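--- STAGE predict ---
source: upstream dedup step, 1 unique chain passed
mode: sequence only
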Amino acid sequence: MATITRNDCEQNALSKQVKDFAVLVPGYIDEIYARAVKVAADMAAQDAALVRPEAVYVTGCGDSYGASMAAAPALRALLPGCTVHPVRASDLAGHVAAFRLKRGVLAMGISVSGTTQRVLDGMARAKSCGAFTIGLTGGTDSPLSRDCDRAVALPQPEVSAEPGAPAPSVLSYAISCLGVIFTGVGLALAAGTITQEQAEGYREDAKAYCAACGERCQEQADDLFVLAQELMGCDGFDFVGDDADFATAYFGSCKFAEGFGAFTVYDDSENWEHVNHFIKDTRHMATFSVISKSSPSLSRQLEQLPVVAYLGRKGVVVTDLPAERIEPQELHVISLPEAPVSWLAPAANYLALSLLASYMTVLSGEQFFRGFARPWNK
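--- STAGE serialize ---
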């Protein structure tokens, strides 16, 4: 059997999205910023209270739910006095108490296709209860954009994939995260809580950070390919992170499952110590810890790492901390650029996990999404 090379692993649509990230995403940010700022300005012109919500609910399914969690810290920072709730679409559609979705509350629904039924249900319910609704969607004439009070049109990246077998998303996830973040920037600008100069500064910071993450990931490709080969002996993977880092852990878990059908689980650092710590087959288990230096629970996240090593698991740390801060030294460290603003980090700190998923899919001989063959075609 021929040896699989790194080049072989980079011919699929998932690897290509990662490779193109640094070039494409800064342009997407310009588009998103302009559209989000205009939507917020139109809202303020309609009613100044709309850009000063008392609470925001953000929802989506799959990657879009991850984007809602990833962008929540940005909304909390940009909208002072506003409580921010990333929620599952099924919760918004039927479980969040109706009185919480009242006038003065903003509900944001993410669906790149604009057709995800549970997101549509959640936004319809929020609107019927009195909340103002914004759809973030790539389809300007999609059901989501038509049904919401306002819509932020997201760029639609062209991803080349084999017919009938789409690749897991990276660019669409980035666009979803950035769409929510810059809707928050637009609201803050329209409300007068930040200046035009600050808003444009965030835009340029995001462009520089996303480009830096994309370039760093390409520099790490050889190392990631070796790591992918080392991880092929594992039959279980858990992903650990807190707050916005949890969103990145969740997204990494999604790519491993979608990519090569891995058994994955995700949790926060505290609950990991209470539950995942006891998973039995430690020698065939890998733990990915996503740790940002700005994390309020940094000390607990660092405490988890020696436990991973003591259990005999393969440990991988994705972090913007200096490598010397990570102990014990046998853990594999994937170093990230530091975000200019902490809440921008989850907009691009998942690229290495995505590239690993791509490499391991090829190495395992799997098809993305199992090729949608039976029984995965339903």
